[in-house]
Amino acid sequence: MKENFRIFSVPPFVEYQLPAIIYAMAIFVVSSIPYAQPPPLGIVYEDKWIHLLEYGGLGFLVARAFYFQNRHGWLRRRWFWMAVLATFAYGITDEIHQWFVPGRYADILDAVADGLGGLLGAYFFSRYLKWKELRMQKTSRKRNGG
């Protein structure tokens, strides 16, 4: 039987909130690079797909950060929509930021893709939670002989 244990304790902030902060900082750094263009993928609306995936990752991490925080009960109860809203707001501020970077531009459709990515990321985190819950129930039944 496999038991979950940790060799050392990690503070909850480091485990749950810090990854979202680092990911958001990485987005900011990359969007600050003048004239940066991703390699062509050869698909229609490829820049929108990149935004969707990029902000999907952020949405997942922000949802996880909000879900596992324990300071604000209201945020814990509304983690899904607050994660979507926070990710979308960050996407909007990133588009505004790119307006001031040489060779970059702000695009409302990029912000929409960012918001949709945040929605998908939060959704995938909710599915992960459901999967984890079902897995724990299955394990519990096995232990109890059911």
Walk me through the structure:
The chain is mostly helical and 146 residues long. The chain has one domain (12-143). The chain is built from 5 helices and no strands. It has helices at 12-31, 46-67, 73-77, 79-99, 108-143. Helix 4 (79-99) packs antiparallel against helix 5. It is elongated, with a radius of gyration of 18 Å. It starts with 11 loop residues before the first helix and ends with a helix.
Q: Flag low-confidence runs.
A: none
What percentage of amino acids are in beta strands?
under 5%
Question: What order do the helices and strands follow?
Answer: HHHHH
Q: What's the rounded overall pLDDT mean?
A: 92
Helix content: over 70%
Shape descriptor reads: elongated
Class by SSE composition: mainly alpha
* Amino-to-carboxy terminus distance: 16 Å
Number of E-state strands: 0
Describe the main β-sheet briefly: none
Cα gyration radius (Å): 18 Å
